[in-house]
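Late entry, written up from scratch paper. The run itself happened at the end of the previous shift, but nothing got recorded in the book at the time, so transcribing now.
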Amino acid sequence: MKRFSTLLILAILVSVAAFAAESGSGKIHLTNSVMVGSIELPAGDYKVTWSGSGDKAQVTLTQGKNVATATARVEAAHQNNDSVTVTSQNGDRILDEIQVHGTTLVLQKGQSIGAGL
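Output as recorded:
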């Protein structure tokens, strides 16, 4: 009976973790302006929301009237800290990854879906 209970608890935990990665939200701070697709977001605090899983997740960054939405790949985070990964390309700072609440969102290059500034 103990073995069955342990397996049941493990199955529930795995299911909850998989479901949590399909949608979520968090907050990030951008110390400098960054590009998300063709949209430039100024430095500041942003709410990050995502829905979907695998390579087709929709990620939205919101700060007042600044909004950018992009397609991303959802992965398990390598660490528990909330952070962003930015690269420099042709003088622009490109937002590559967002890590929040144990989930890494890898933004697809040039995939800005929509924005309103």
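The first helix runs from residue 2 to 22.
(Scratch paper discarded after transcription.)
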